[in-house]
Fold this protein.
Amino acid sequence: MTDRISHWIDGKPVSGTAGRTGDVFDPATGQVRAQVDFAGPAEVERAVAAASAALPGWRGTSLAGRTRVLFAFRELLQARKDELAKIVTGEHGKVESDAAGEVARGIENVEYACGAAQLLKGGFSENASTSVDVYSIAQPLGVVGVISPFNFPAMVPLWFVPNALACGNTVVLKPSEKDPSAAVFLAELLAEAGLPPGVFNVLHGDKVAVDGLLEHPEVKAVSFVGSTPIARYVYETGTRNGKRVQALGGAKNHMVVLPDADLDLAADAAVSAGFGSAGERCMAVSVVVAVDPVGDELVAKITERMRLLRVGDGRNPDSEMGPLVTRAHHARVSSYVDAGVTEGATLAVDGRAVEADGAEGGFWLGPTLFDHVRPGMSVYTDEIFGPVLSVARAADFDEALALINANPYGNGTAVFTGDGAAARRFQNEVEVGMVGVNVPIPVPVGYYSFGGWKDSLFGDSHAYGPEGFHFFTRTKVVTSRWPDSSHAGVNLGFPKNS
Ligand code: NAD
């Protein structure tokens, strides 16, 4: 008997009634570990109705009251972070240290949201005109939808949910159907923290659930993270239906290594940023751009380090890289390795024959390195989202920069150099939303905001931090005059004899 993973609506688990389910795997064994319910239109209706019913109460809860729930949630997450990390590893496959890192980055966003009382302060202009005051207030949007990808099943929901709640909204989360248990665990902790029923709901499923949220008139905004084609679809459909939408998409992140860089530091960075979480990170480095003449030496150093990487079951503390998330994803990533060979890239390390320390049926693919990759090859143009790192060669800084700026994605990038002026020029001219200087994965801390440019983000708000608070509120400006009739002789600005 496999487990059944049900929706969470109005403060309790609710079994699916649509008659559709999906398999959830243990990627390290290849076995189906659970069935997750897929929502149909009736369940979408039920979840949105619960969130709508809870809205007046939650919107009317004082800032102190909302913050108390978020503080309690933070404490519970902190106390039970290992449990959550194990849930992530069990369904995603990433090693537990990576899962723990994801949980820690998620908690950071809860801590930010605990500052709601400070962050929701409006402006006030006394006496803007005689006896007239003008002030702004930030109000919640209403019911908001959050749709998240498989690769960070705890962290990405936590990019949005705490901030949305802090701002007084109620939420329906549609997590990835590939690893849905983390979302339910978050719902349980929020309930334990004192969040009233209906304020946070989890709806499992696929396109049917997503479309239901995108079309529902009571859903006022949608935060989406996933691949670019779906992000574009969600943005277009949601905005056509009058919703506020931020839709974060895919990536092809380049890491430039200039000739004066510390090559050992750069090689360490390329390996951890290329193969951490088996490359299933939207901020993973997927292309190293080696600027002449460092290519051969850098490739040798990266190769040396890759051969030491231990691939195995994420639950084993010795493993450094786990399996891919599903059999289908494994097949897709492996097909890119085949294509890279056919297209003429140099296969420096072949991960297809990996001997993993784990069950035979696991979705294993070892770290793979292509050298002499050129634009036009599918390993260069496409987001592979697996442990496949490409090295492209560039003659100089300008060629490296032009390569990045010609790419349709613009999520993250990094430059490795000892030259401050080169780094400054890079950060100024590169057309990418998040830039690292000698930092390979420049994910902004919770009090900045996360977002790419170009095809990596549709909409104009980045995720979490100040832009998150901006996204989850709308501003009202009040212009107010209180005539004081006791001050005889004071000009109140009214026409005489009115
Ligand atoms: P995905 O696009 O397949 O799925 C994302 C969400 O959309 C899931 O909840 C899924 O159920 C839903 N979905 C899938 N197909 C749909 C359809 N046809 N219509 C409506 N909804 C649909 O992405 P994924 O494979 O889960 O995640 C990996 C992708 O997410 C990568 O492209 C990665 O770069 C991207 N990602 C981006 C960021 C970022 O911040 N930019 C962060 C994490 C992941």
Remarks:
- The chain has two domains: 3-249+456-478, 253-437.
- The radius of gyration is 25 Å.
